[in-house]
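Minimal example, chain plus zinc ion.
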Amino acid sequence: MSDINHFIFDSKLEGPSLLCLGAIHGNETCGTDAILKIMTQIQQGHLKIGKGKLTCIPICNPEAYQRKKRYVHANLNRLFGCQEDFEAYEKDLVREISKFINSHDYILDLHSYHSKGNPFIFLDTDHQREVDLAKSVGIKDIITGWPEMYNEKDYTTSGYAHALGKISLTVECGHHHDPQSSIVAYDVLRKTLNYLDMVNFSSASIPNHHIVHANTIHYKAREGCFSKNWQHMDCLEPNEVIASYADGTEIKVLEKCYILLPYENAQIGDEWFYTGTSLEDL
Ligand SMILES: [Zn+2]
């Protein structure tokens, strides 16, 4: 048994089952804040689950959360559905959270990220109901193509859930230390409940979506720095210099694209930034 706490709010009426996950990465606390706020509203009688069942796991990696770290031994969001045997604190966590994913129809996994920029959704499914859900939670930016870019099996919560035919949304609610990310996470959770007809809020305005298809991983080969303080989803013009290595070699893009999750201080050999194109620009 792990030390994960879960909370079930069951309307006892037929309807969807939604599993909401926070702090899959221990240093990403916006989901935890949002889930605890919704739980308090339900417990105090200010919010009622009108049908179906909501299950909350506010802190999926308790030890990492306590230490304000991404993980203790292994990245929890690269372990779901993994058949390899491994020894890690996260082993019991992944086993237990997988059981919850197995028994729910919908999964909402709330994260934050290290770059400066706006919230966005990873969308990697042709399932129309998931596309519709993604477009109804009030987030403008949507990124597709992530698992194909890595060209390997997807061991994230959503990858695992999709393989089981579930609808699963991973939302990046903003920068780790931006207090706004908790507000975004709360809003996404409310709008998910609303979309599933589990609560009845007045319908909110839907933003014009900007969909970028990620297609290239740029690894940091040696010491170097960015040409400017890039923000996630900044637009890059053809031949624009993104970064240069200490020996003077410049890294440019040939066509108009968008920089994704830039991380100037990445370790050598790790992902430095990604690029992707918008269908609107083709
Ligand atoms: Zn994360």
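The longest strand covers residues 210-219. The helical segments are 30-43, 62-66, 90-102, 128-134, 146-150, 157-163, 180-195.
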